[in-house]
């Protein structure tokens, strides 16, 4: 099936799952024309439908609860219950049970497609896989004040980024969330916080088109913000004709996570705190320049720690890895990235 047909079919399905913000969906379509990396981020549904055909040798690998939409910008920071600064994957919208290698292949393919990538693709795959093995064997969260302190320079929020965050909050258009969503947002605030207003927010890649509402409140000398984002079943379920319940919270609160205490599922919306130190880390317009091997290794580690939380997964994955050629991930990521580029070219030609 051609990409444009899959895209149309998926968006029809999406409209049956939630109320779609059509202006945001149109914005997503424009973003998808920019480059193959942004296109990859926006089209997990296509990946879910095609990856088993693109990489058939990986289809029979052990299955675990996977992230699904792994890529180099699906990592962020948050504060855990102890106030510790934590880094890791922070979006599990597409979580589903599927062969474990696909999380690694998508991450490596996203690095290949990153604009201005300067690191050798073979080294990228090797670093991700090295980190992944370590994450499986010694899973734990990345605590930036302790054993992962070296990462602070990669994720530190600059004064400009802080100012930009609050400037963006000020510009969020005022909106009226559905009553259950408004109630969930209000209940996520401290008891003595004073609600200033509700607003809408345009953010994300693949999730553009789904409603996002925010509550902006005053609390003890400053403003605080909570976001509610519409959650739908994983596109993996759509692609495979199954009906799985969202698994977002299962991964977000897994055995080897230090979860965000403000993160909660309320009905069909994920509610979370957003702040300069609780955000998705954006690598900017030239992400490839920032993708050094130590950061890619850490990304692989986090995926390994997530997969290790599936009971009985570790020995099965380790045995499977032992049977594969040394450059299997490099080859699979190359094939996947080429397929994405073909779809990207089709999209640009069609739009």
What brief labels describe this structure?
five-stranded antiparallel sheet; alpha+beta; 11 strands; 351 residues; four-stranded antiparallel sheet
Tell me about this structure.
The chain is of the alpha+beta class and 351 residues long. The chain is built from 14 helices and eleven strands. The protein has helices at 3-17, 22-31, 36-42, 44-54, 101-113, 121-137, 152-155, 159-171, 179-187, 235-239, 248-252, 293-307, 313-323, 328-350; strands spanning 63-66, 75-79, 85-89, 96-99, 142-143, 194-200, 212-219, 222-230, 264-266, 269-274, 279-280. The strands form three sheets. Strands 6-7-8-10-9 form a five-stranded antiparallel beta sheet, covered by helices on one side. A four-stranded antiparallel beta sheet has the order 5-3-2-11. The longest helix has 23 residues, at 328-350. It is globular and about 60 Å long.
């Amino acid at each position: 099936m051609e990409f444009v047909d899959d895209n149309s079919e998926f968006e029809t399905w999406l409209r049956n799952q939630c109320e779609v913000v059509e202006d945001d969906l149109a914005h997503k379509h424009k973003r998808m024309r920019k480059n193959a990396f942004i296109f990859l981020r926006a089209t997990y549904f296509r990946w879910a439908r095609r990856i088993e055909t693109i990489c058939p040798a990986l289809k029979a690998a052990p299955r675990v609860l996977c992230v699904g939409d792994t890529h180099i910008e699906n990592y962020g920071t948050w504060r855990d219950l102890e106030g510790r600064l934590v880094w890791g994957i922070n979006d599990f919208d597409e979580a589903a049970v599927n062969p474990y290698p696909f999380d690694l292949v998508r991450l490596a393919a996203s690095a290949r497609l990153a604009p201005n990538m300067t690191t050798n693709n073979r080294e990228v795959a090797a670093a991700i896989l090295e980190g992944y093995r370590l994450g499986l064997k010694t899973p734990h969260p990345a605590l930036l004040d302790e054993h992962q302190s070296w990462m602070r320079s990669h994720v530190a929020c600059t004064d400009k980024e802080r100012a930009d965050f609050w400037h963006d909050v000020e510009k969020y258009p005022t909106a009226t969330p559905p009553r259950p969503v408004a109630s969930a947002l209000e209940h996520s605030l401290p008891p003595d916080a004073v609600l200033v207003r509700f607003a809408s927010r345009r953010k994300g890649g693949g999730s553009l088109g789904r409603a996002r509402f925010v509550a902006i409140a005053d609390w003890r000398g400053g403003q605080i913000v909570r976001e509610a984002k519409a959650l739908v079943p994983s596109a993996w379920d759509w692609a495979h004709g199954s009906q799985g319940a969202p698994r977002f919270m299962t991964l977000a609160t897994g055995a080897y996570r230090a979860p965000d205490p403000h993160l909660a599922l309320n009905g069909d919306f994920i509610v979370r705190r957003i702040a300069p130190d609780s955000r998705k880390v954006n690598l900017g317009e030239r992400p490839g320049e920032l993708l050094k091997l130590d950061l890619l290794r850490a990304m692989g580690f986090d995926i390994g720690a997530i997969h290790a939380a599936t009971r009985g997964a570790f020995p099965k994955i380790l045995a499977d890895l032992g049977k594969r050629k040394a450059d299997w991930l490099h080859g699979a990521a190359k094939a996947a990235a080429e397929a994405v580029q073909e779809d990207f070219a089709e999209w640009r030609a069609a739009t």
